[in-house]
Amino acid sequence: MDILSIIFICIIGLVFGSFMNVLIMRVPKNISIIKPSSFCPQCMENIKWRDNIPVISYILLKGKCRYCKKSIPIMYPLTEILTSLLFVVIYLKFGLNLMFFKYVIFIFLVLVISLTDIYTSASDFETGMIPTVYIALGIFAGLVFGLLEGFFAYYLAGIAAGYLVLFFPAYIYSKIRHKEGMGEGDFMFFAMIGAFTGLGSIPAVLTFAAFFGITAGIVVIAVTRDKNYPIPFAPMLGVSAIIYVFFEELLNSYNWGSFIIN
Ligand SMILES: [Zn+2]
Q1: How many folded domains does the chain comprise?
Q2: Which of 79, 96, 113 lies at the terminal end of a domain, its last residue?
Q3: Hey, which of 162, 211, 220, 262 would disulfide with 190, CB 3.0 to 4.6 Å?
Q4: Ligand 1 centroid to 64 CA: how many Å?
Q5: Do 92 and 129 fall within a single domain?
Q6: What is the largest CA-CA distance in the chain?
C-alpha cells in the first residue's frame, strides 16, 4: 500500500462524492445532471470551477456562497469526505483488483440511495424516494460481477431473498395496520444489496437493519412524541450492507449454530 495510491483514491473519492451531491439534489426533481452547471440554490448564481473544488472550496469560502453569502449545507463536504473515506477503506481491504471496482460501485450506489432517501424524506417531498434507475443499475452491475466471480446463482438468490424477506413482513403489516410500513423502494434496495453481497449476507444485513431501525424508532418517538413520524429505512439497510462488506469474514467465521447448541 503506497501513500501515492491512497492519495489518488482519496481524490477520486472526493470527486465522486461531489458528483453524488449533484445526483442527490437533482435526480428526485428530474433535473438534468449535466445542464445547467452547478449553481447556488439560493441566488441561482453560477458557481465557478474554483468555488466547486470538493471540500477545499467549502473551507476557503468559510461555508458561504461567494455571491449571496448564504450558508452552503454542511451535507456537501460531509458527503464528499464520507465517499472518499469509504473508497480508501475499500482499497486498504481489497487492494486494486476486481473486488475494488465491485465494492466502489456498490458503496457509491448504497450511499446515493440512502442519502437520497434521507434528503427526500427531510425536504418537501411526500415520502422518501428511491430512484429506480439506481436499483436497475445496481442489480445489473451486481450480476455482472457475480458472473465474473463464477457465482451467478448465489447472487441471483441474494436478489430474490433480499426482496422477499422485506416484502412478506411489510405485506402482513399493511394488512393488519391498514397502512404502509416499508415501501417497494426498500424491497428493491435490499434486492440490489443481495445482488452484490449474495444470499449468505441477507440474515446479517436484515438483523443489523432491524436493530438500527428499532433504535432509530425509539429515539425519534422519544424526541418528537410522534408515533407516526416516518423513518426512512433505506439508510438502515445501507449502513448494514456497508458493515457487512467490511466485516464479512468476521461475521461468517462466527458459528451462529454453536450459540444455540451450547
Ligand atoms: Zn448564492
Answers
A1: 2
A2: 96
A3: 162
A4: 8
A5: no
A6: 67
Residues 31 and 123 in one domain: no
For ligand 1, the distance from its centroid to the CA atom of residue 21, given in whole angstroms, is 17
* Same domain (yes/no): 79, 109: no
CA angle, residues 66, 68, 73, in degrees to nearest 5: 75
d(CA 69, ligand 1 centre) in Å = 6
Ligand 1 centroid from CA 149, angstroms = 48
Separation of 76 CA from ligand 1 center, angstroms? 15
89 and 123 both lie in a single domain: no
Q: Which of 142, 143, 144, 120 is nearest to 131 (CA)?
A: 120
Residue identified by cell 456498490 is 106
- The amino acid that residue 119 corresponds to is Y
Q: Check whether residue 122 and residue 89 sit in a common domain.
A: no
For residue 58, the CA-to-ligand 1 centroid distance in Å is: 13
- Residue 45 alpha carbon to ligand 1 centre in Å: 6
**Nearest CA among 197, 203, 5 for reference residue 96:** 5
Domain of 188?
A: 97-262
| Distance of CA 72 from the midpoint of ligand 1 (Å) | 8
Q: Which residue has the cell 460501485?
A: 105
- Written as tens digits, the pLDDT of the chain (262 aa) is 689 999 999 999 999 999 999 999 999 988 898 888 888 988 989 999 899 999 999 999 999 999 999 999 999 999 999 999 999 999 999 999 999 999 999 999 999 999 999 999 888 766 788 999 999 999 999 999 999 999 999 999 999 999 999 998 888 888 887 777 678 899 999 999 999 999 999 999 999 999 999 999 899 889 988 877 778 899 999 999 999 999 988 887 765 555 554 4
- Whole-number Å distance, alpha carbon 90 to ligand 1 midpoint, is 36
